[in-house]
């Protein structure tokens, strides 16, 4: 049960961080909410459910074929650590978000899908962090992998939906100290997660 809780918590942490971090998809969630209504923002928020599946399947398939190649897996783990350190830095140094809104025809789901497909971050995340964690969790049980994914998607989508609702109530939410401070706390947590990937990478190279 300890492993299940650990992977669920990891998924929730990564999902929450991805959900509230400034980026193309969050910007689109907010802009569609302000241009139209919260329903349009929610349509954008669910885009990762559509776009991520092929990325997850492809990266998990590739990594499963590399399971006996420790140096390659070590490089991937170290790359994941660097990516997490970068995300942690961005979260800790985050500033308020300002948007310039123009009225356009709502095509929120389509915009969300294309925005996520053209954003390199999901590809880097799933190859260097997400899929390695799924495969590692599966060594404990398939249930652990499922909990990681469930925690991730509940939090990435849920946090974006919550932000859409808060922004509809108050346009200044993304300029608030609450938003900035939550980001910084998540950045510190991500730093710890990055250190675990660094340790795994060094272990695969035989340094630990």
TrEMBL record:
Localization, UniProt: Cell membrane
Protein's membrane topology: Multi-pass membrane protein
Entry's Gene Ontology cellular component terms: plasma membrane
Membrane-crossing residue ranges in chain numbering: 6-30, 42-66, 72-92, 113-135, 141-166, 178-198
Keyword Membrane carried by entry: yes
InterPro entries assigned to the protein according to its UniProt record, in alphabetical order: LeuE-type
Annotated keywords: Cell membrane, Membrane, Transmembrane, Transmembrane helix
GO biological process, one term: amino acid transport
PANTHER family (UniProt xref): LYSINE EXPORTER PROTEIN (LYSE/YGGA), LYSINE TRANSPORTER LYSE
Official protein name in the record: LysE family translocator
Origin organism lineage: Bacteria, Pseudomonadati, Thermodesulfobacteriota, Syntrophobacteria, Syntrophobacterales
